[in-house]
Write a structure and sequence with these properties.
The structure is a homodimer of 759-residue chains.
Chain A lengths: L16 H5 L15 E7 L5 E7 L1 H5 L3 E6 L21 E2 L5 E7 L2 H9 L2 E6 L6 H4 L22 E3 L2 H7 L2 E9 L11 E6 L5 E5 L4 H12 L6 E4 L15 H13 L3 E4 L2 H7 L6 E9 L5 E13 L9 H10 L5 E10 L13 H19 L3 H8 L18 H13 L10 E12 L11 E7 L5 E5 L8 H13 L6 E4 L17 H28 L6 E4 L2 E4 L6 E3 H9 L7 E7 L18 E13 L4 E12 L6 H21 L4 E2 L2 E2 L17 E7 L21 H13 L5 E2 L3 H13 L3
Parallel strand pairs in A: 1-12, 8-29, 10-11, 14-15, 18-19, 25-28
Antiparallel strand pairs in A: 1-5, 2-4, 2-6, 3-5, 7-15, 8-13, 9-10, 9-12, 13-14, 16-24, 17-18, 17-23, 20-21, 21-22, 24-25, 26-27
Chain lengths: 759, 759
């Protein structure tokens, strides 16, 4: 397909790559400030206990200690989605992550030692670790003042008549899918550096990925206006949703810095990262799917139970997206959805790449496979039959414009069949499939889903994009620079991206929901278009031609009719500047997608574009020991337009890595409120040589609203993986593993059951 | 006078003050970078010599040395006003400042030691240290390839018929005024830090005050495009014009960093600062002034001889401004002006606060005083008679709009007479006067005299001004923030100024010619006005009123007819943002004053406003030992509008301090090419307790083009001081001291001559 583009569509190394591979990048961990003090946090070791006495006097007296803060002696305000926690706990602790005191000292070692000098006497309380048990009468209350452990959050949705559809169905499949805690396991742990100036303004260097929301939330937690907080985001070693909410580390850094009158850095070590980094929530999804005899879906009925943990962060809100999948992944005319969310004494969960969708897609796509079995239909045919098409409107009111799910399905199916790896003798081979449905044009979960951009073109032809969008390793800098270079018709090397300081950047809602390429990309494109118009206006005077007769490409401004009449674009800019009445080239734009928030009935068109993907997974299973080896993954993605194909593939590779871990090996073991897996020896992230052959196909549906037709992709890679792996294992062994991860023990148990059952 | 302003016009502490006084400010000297190497420069000790041999092998071999660069082994390109120097000299050295090699090492100490390991063999050449001797036949040539020491720069101007006017004059006074080298003596020495990235992009942390010109010049010196250079300007401890040109320190830092593949910092120690910091040029001004019997000026005839030193920086171009004073300080219908500028083997000069004007004003105002004597007229009456008025056009074509010289004269005269300090018994007392004439609305010495501004108002009501203007201690941050706050009607504390990174800031020609308040102020005001318009448009929808019926003041948007109908401005911004089709508040502006460059005949209207000042100085002189004590200075300044009166007064105080040093004590002694005064023990900057009582009067002529009526002020304070002191000494003693500084020796010599002459 001939593309009319110079820069967009060509695989381009990440602009921040050279600095990263040569060790020049200064990550948050590397930052030093004059007089920097080091903070450490004292956590409880009891999942539920009353704080009887806390004596920090010995810690305060230790040489080198600059400040000790506890819940009793600092001003703080509740924060979080439900405003149900303080950074430093008062009265009682509700999970083992709970922060009871913190120390700032001259060195991290002194701070660590001082923690041990803090005497805390607890009265241990009965605890509850299961969301359903938490709702039983007489269960210990996590928050007494709420008088119940049932969370006020409830996601209840009905569309059509599910009961009638069930009654009329030719086939109904019903199961419960269980998903445990996992953690993003970022290579760079969480860090917060706080620095107050004499006027009471706070500068924060942080791992947040929502800097402007963070500004507001941190201000509320500290009791100051967001205008007093400047947020700086140095490069981070991964985030994956971890930075989507405010967590105690940031508040405590600010409280310590205020008390110590010094800048304070808190840096999690790896054990602390396992304990205190927000996880993907544990949940159980009960799901029932009904179809007619031809395989046409009639209804879905779902109930999601979520372990909310001790406090409310994004993990308790994931049904928002789970519902989208239950209602939107394949055409389904009747949908019922409900939730049970309960407080427990477990650690609480945040958002993690895909945000509910890997969980719900595991349930939906596992069940689609089983439904095909029940109907005796081909698994792909069932999915092809029910795949949504452009023009569809989902039961929630999502309007599908560009949408290439069937193309993704065909591409992934063809790809997995091509050149299969040689089989392992004695092992069983299987192929599994799963699709996914996700927002691809932002997601209006706040009243604004916008992003601002400022583009400046200087005398030397250097272009700076100041964007609201945050780079968290996903390659946004590069793709935004490409969009600006393409729009302006200038070489990519001339474009810089500035994206890490709230005092300079225009607003953005943050990096989430795969929105950056789409939303920030449109803002960048619009600002660049304004600069392009200004540039051609300047050139019009210099060429003595109307601006419409001129064009700019490859760094040259030229006459369309006579491309040899051309001037380097920076020469046009200089000539337009260095004269009486001259001017510079600067423009801004703000793009907010034409979408609506969900209403109280969860109806609305939250995204300006929706996207899909389809994955096929080929596994070999050693039935003797239950070992599953993924040999090949074929992943086809409707990206609208692949602006930076290599980066898009990289996003998918990373997602598949994370998804395979979710499917097979990663498991944050939480037992009686304790996080048992505290190192990479226990928590099994897949290593490079665990990874299969991966084939990515980027399907271009060319979205009319997206920048150059592009849609979001950041989360697509991870979402279908676990379901496709589960379905491949079933294909190989006949065992339906409905609980993640599919460990050898679980698979062997299933195999044993299958043998015992005689099947 | 009732002012309609909330913020403008009120004395406001500098916004960067608290950080400075609490030691939080990180000056350029304080900066550290990972892997930072330290550079040192080897200079010659011979003012003129051929480099016969340079052997750096021992230095290269020293442990801890990372790179050694010499003229022989680096790629470099000539730079400077006349492109007549290389950063690392080749073939020969022409003055004792000349750089022959440089070392980067792990520590400054190692670098220093390595310098001593570099063997340089010179063949000393005959040298020339006097510009007139340099022009004699057979004088040693500083640049052989030019075949002469006469500089190609020549400033020749004629207006009217000077010879006829001289013939018709009732009185003609003629004298030569001699001015020596002085140095800005900044508390913070010069520093350059250079850091190349793997792609060949260079980041510079520098003392420049013209970052965008510097980008171009440094790029040329290094043979790369300016687009590859990012310029960062951390806070500096003074600049005063020192940062107006590119000097070898910056080029060498970049060359060392390139060779060492490490960031390199070069930091001058105090001795090096005395040797290598650009000076105010030494010059001799021959001047003749003619008047009719009533005291009306008929003509001025001037010839300026400048010691250009070994290379050409701004010091050789100061006649550009000297001419303005000869032609513009008082009405004078016939003017002739010429220059002799010669290369010598002395250190070369740069620009320094006032840039030629303190020098020429010393000549012109000394001569005005003597002319009054000759005519038997009152010194003030003569000046009042000849003072320009609004509507005047100077012989060069400068158009005076707002112009309050007579008001300044009256104010300073009245102020000096009020409550004079008690006299010292036995000492002689005198009062002296001097006025000055200067640009106050930019100075178009480049084809653009513009400045860009971007203003953003965020959800929290925080306003950021991103300005092209550089802060060098003059208070620009504060006054620009005030202009934005006043324009937007928001509290000053809500405004931040971003001004130190070329990759973010829009273009500005730099800090010089007292232009920042005027030019950057207008740009800031225009951008803020656009944001204000956007804000009121948002409010119009929310108030259901036309925008014209609304106003914003003190942080409230209100209905003009019913000011109780009001909403906090940040609430308006939030409501305008957090909705479908919402947007953010960002706007940009570029202001380039409506002026022209001087043509080849030095005709043109270079500034959008002109300004004047008048100073009166009261001295007591001990005739026994020639000691002069300045007891009081009254200084009246046409500031257009005093936006920040305390800061304006501070600028004048600083100028008077510098001017008194120029008049009485500061003298960079250069003998046979050697800088003899290398410490503050030798170079006598006035101490706090040397300072007299100072009374500043700010005269508000309210310029129609200036922001809120303001004009430039940065240089006015220093310009007339030396002349006023000289005239006060004459008033006290009768001695005409036409050479600066007026040391006790010189004054005693004059007194002796007066006694010997029997007067």
């Amino acid at each position: 397909m001939a593309q009319p583009f110079t820069i967009v569509g060509k695989s381009t190394p990440k602009l921040d790559g050279p600095d990263k591979v040569t060790g020049r990048t200064r990550y948050l961990h590397d930052l030093e400030l004059p007089r920097l003090a080091h903070g450490k946090i004292l956590r409880t070791r009891l999942p539920h206990a009353r704080i009887v006495r806390l004596d920090a006097s010995r810690a305060r007296a230790r040489a080198g200690v600059l400040a000790v803060v506890t819940g009793a002696d600092v001003q703080q305000h509740p924060f979080g989605f439900a405003k149900d926690q303080l950074a430093l706990k008062r009265g009682k602790v509700r999970c083992i992550r709970d922060e009871v005191a913190a120390v700032a000292a001259e060195t991290p070692e002194i701070a660590e030692e001082a923690l041990e000098l803090i005497d805390v006497e607890y009265e241990e309380l009965p605890a509850v670790f299961d969301p359903l048990k938490a709702l039983e009468p007489g269960a210990p209350l996590v928050h007494e003042e709420l008088t119940t452990n049932r969370h006020h959050l409830r996601y209840q949705f009905t569309h059509g008549d599910v009961d009638r559809a069930l009654a009329q169905a030719a086939a109904v499949v019903e199961d419960t899918y269980r998903l445990g805690f996992v953690t993003p396991a970022c290579m760079g742990t969480m860090v917060a550096i706080a620095d107050w100036d004499p006027a009471g303004n706070l500068t924060m260097w942080t791992t947040t990925q929502v800097p402007f929301i963070y500004q507001r939330d941190l201000g509320e937690a500290l009791g100051i206006g967001g205008d007093r907080i400047r947020v700086l985001q140095p490069p981070v070693g991964g985030n994956f949703g971890r930075g989507l909410d405010l967590y105690p580390i940031d508040v405590i850094a600010a409280l310590l810095a205020r008390a110590a009158r010094r800048p304070v850095k808190i840096e999690f070590d790896r054990v602390e990262e396992f304990l205190a980094c927000p996880t993907r929530e544990a949940c159980a999804i009960w799901l029932r799917t009904a179809a007619d005899r031809d395989g046409r879906l009639l209804a879905r009925d779902a109930h999601v139970t979520i372990d909310g943990g001790a406090y409310t962060s994004w993990g308790s809100t994931t049904p928002y997206v789970m519902l989208s999948t239950v209602a939107g992944l394949y055409r389904v005319p009747n949908v019922r959805f409900d939730t049970t969310i309960a407080y427990t004494n477990n650690p609480y969960s945040g958002s993690m790449r895909g945000y509910g969708n890997p969980e719900s897609t595991f349930a939906v796509e596992s069940q689609m496979d089983d439904l095909a079995d029940r109907l005796g239909m081909d698994r792909l045919a069932l999915r092809r039959l029910n795949a949504p098409k452009p023009g569809d409107v989902s039961p929630q009111g999502f309007v599908l414009t560009s949408f290439a799910m069937r193309e993704c399905l065909d591409a992934a199916a063809a790809e997995i069949a091509r050149n299969p790896p040689p089989p392992t003798p004695g092992w069983k081979r299987g192929v599994g499939y799963a699709g996914m449905f996700h927002v691809g044009g932002g997601a209006r979960i706040y009243r604004s889903d916008g992003c601002g951009a400022i583009v400046k073109l200087d005398d030397f032809g250097k272009v700076t994009l100041i964007t609201g969008a945050s780079e968290i390793g996903q390659g946004s800098e590069t793709v935004l620079a490409m969009i600006v270079a393409e729009t302006l018709g200038v070489p990519l090397a001339r474009v810089d991206v500035v994206n890490s300081d709230t005092s300079i950047r225009p607003w953005d809602v943050g990096t989430h929901a795969s929105r950056t390429t789409f939303v920030a990309g449109n803002a960048a494109r619009q600002a660049a278009e304004k600069v392009r118009t200004q540039l051609l206006d300047m050139a019009a005077a210099q060429f003595d031609e109307p601006a419409a007769a001129l064009d700019v490409k490859g760094g040259w401004v030229f006459a369309r009719r006579d491309p040899q009449r051309r001037v380097q674009y920076e020469a046009v800019a200089r000539a337009g500047h260095f004269r009486g009445g001259g001017r510079m080239l600067v423009a801004e734009a703000f793009y907010d997608p034409p979408t609506t928030m969900l209403d109280k009935d969860f109806q609305g068109n939250v995204s300006a574009a929706y996207t899909s993907a389809f994955q096929a997974v080929l596994v070999d299973v050693d039935p003797e020991i239950g070992r599953v080896v993924v040999r090949k993954v074929a992943s086809a993605h409707d990206v609208g337009r692949a602006l930076n194909p290599a980066a898009a593939e990289g996003q998918v590779h990373g997602g598949i890595h994370m998804g395979l871990g979710y499917a097979l090996s990663e498991r944050l073991v939480v037992e009686r409120g304790q996080v048992v897996t505290q190192t990479f020896m226990d928590y099994a992230v897949l290593k490079a040589d665990d990874m299969p052959e991966i084939e990515v196909r980027l399907i271009e549906s060319v979205d009319a609203e997206g920048p150059f037709g592009a849609k979001g992709l950041g989360e697509s890679g991870v979402i279908p993986v676990a379901a496709a792996v589960r379905n491949a294992i079933k294909d190989a062994t006949g065992v339906r593993c409905n609980e993640l991860p599919v460990t050898p023990e679980r698979l062997l148990a299933g195999l044993g059951a299958a043998i015992r059952g005689g099947s």
